[in-house]
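Q: What structure does this chain adopt?
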Amino acid sequence: MTSQSQGIQQLLQAEKRAKDKLEEAKKRKGKRLKQAKEEAIAEIDHYRLQREKEFRNKQTNVMGSQGNLSAKIEEQTTETIRNLTSSYHKNMESMMKKLLSTICDINPEVHQNFRQSA
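A:
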């Protein structure tokens, strides 16, 4: 009988060791999954930050170009206004003289189609 109880004890101990090994393997698997998840989240965050940085750089380049374009247009507008003002002041006197002479110097003439009624 003692050999049977020893055999049963050995089987129970073997079963307990197997159960412990399974639990340990489950714990290791859980830790590995948790670690893999954390690594994936960290990698995703790193990738997101990298892409956001690239986007901000591109956005700055584009918006910076628009800012330069705005300044260039403003400069061209100012130059055009300056040129028009200069031209106005330069030609105003002569144009006023021409206009007044055309209006005031009237030469009365009979139109060629006019017929005297006799």
